[in-house]
Amino acid sequence: MSDQATITLSDLVVTTFTKGLNTLTHVLQVAEAHAATQGINPDTEYLPARLIDDMRPLQFQLQNVTKHVRVVLGRLTGEEYPVWEDTETTIKEFYGRIEKARKLLEGVDKSKIDARAGEVVDHPFGPNITFKVSIRDSIFGHGLPNFYFHLTTAYAILRSKGVPVGKYDYVKEFFAPVEIPRR
């Protein structure tokens, strides 16, 4: 019989978000390097890029990957984190925003998350709808899917612009070990 480890909600969320932010940093670094070899400005070439006209641009996707970390951690811990203004216009500024999200993950009190996992909270969905769901259900039904959606869309936009990233570039950070400090 194998020994099964218990995975806490905080371990899942903090590890997943940390690794996702590492992936985001990596694909942006590849994009910058590619732009340099092509003689193009990555800020003006990539940040406004979209997969299709009615979809939001890369800039929005980057803001929402990081915003999602802040919003989800707030919902998980019951803490109010200051709103981040969406003013980034350069990839360099996005590295700073990604670092802010990493700092939130590093400083989160994981015991608060795990203690509240079954607590029922209001989960806004659009301007006129609010669901009452457990924090656990909020994470599995909204938090993680939305985080992955914006991360994957950012990757796909860069790929569509010719940035030489592949599946390995996306998944390798998820396989890399990450040390999450215990609190």
What is the structural class?
mainly alpha
Give the low-pLDDT segments: none
Distance between the termini: 31 Å
Task: Work out the radius of gyration.
Answer: 17 Å
CATH architecture title: Up-down Bundle
Strand runs, count: 2
Query: Any idea of the CATH class?
Result: Mainly Alpha
- What does the main sheet amount to? 2 strands, antiparallel
Strand order of the largest sheet: 1-2
* Oligomeric nature of the chains: single chain
In the CATH scheme, what's the topology name?
Answer: Four Helix Bundle (Hemerythrin (Met), subunit A)
Q: Average pLDDT value?
A: 91
* Fraction in helix: 55-70%
CATH superfamily: dinb family like domain
- What characteristic shape results from the CA principal axes? globular
Total number of helices: 7
Secondary-structure element sequence? HHHHHEEHH
Strand content: 5-15%
Number of domains: 1
Please characterize this protein's 3D structure:
It holds the Pfam family DUF1993. InterPro entries: DinB/YfiT-like, DUF1993. This is DUF1993 domain-containing protein. The protein has a two-stranded antiparallel sheet. Strand 1 and strand 2 form a beta hairpin. The model has no long low-confidence stretch (mean pLDDT 91). The chain has helices at 9-38, 42-45, 58-77, 91-107, 110-116, 135-160, 167-175, and strands at 120-124, 130-134. It is mostly helical. It has 7 helices and 2 strands, in the order H-H-H-H-H-E-E-H-H. The longest helix has 30 residues, at 9-38. It has one domain (9-175): dinb family like domain (Four Helix Bundle (Hemerythrin (Met), subunit A), Up-down Bundle), CATH 1.20.120.450.
